[in-house]
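cron nightly-structures :: item 1 of 1
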Amino acid sequence: MAVSEPKSFGVVFLVVAVAGLAPALSGAPEVGPPPAGGTSEGVAAGDSVKAVVHAFHDALAAGDSARALELLHPEVRVFESGHAETLAEYRSGHLAADIAFSRAVERTVLGEHVSGGERRTLYLSEYRMSGTFRGEDVELHGTETMALVRTDAGWRIRHIHWSSR
């Protein structure tokens, strides 16, 4: 017997996923719409957050594990393929596969949004990945949530959650 997925699952999942980020974002100001105008501090912070996320993906695509790991917070949690990994687990687990996959396919960001405060923020994106991986054609549509925290070294990724279909 086939079970169909309820239409509201995505909304419920998003609420649960964002609520689960509370430890990474505790103390963050209320999340709201991005500030208007192109010169505010909020827009500049959003641009620097996007730059870190893009640098992380660029490092994966270039096979630069050292650079990718440098952009992760020491207490990062990576949710991927039904697993939650610490930095050490990600380094010895999914990182190599993420690099191999990122090198083989093209990632196109369809939309992205940054929302948060001066020390903690959320990066949300929707993307498409296409290409050939291990002899198979790939055409994925995915969503990504990253929680970033500002450290003395700049923005670092504290939490990643990838989901694709």
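cron nightly-structures :: done
The domain at 41-164 is CATH 3.10.450.50 (Nuclear Transport Factor 2; Chain: A,).
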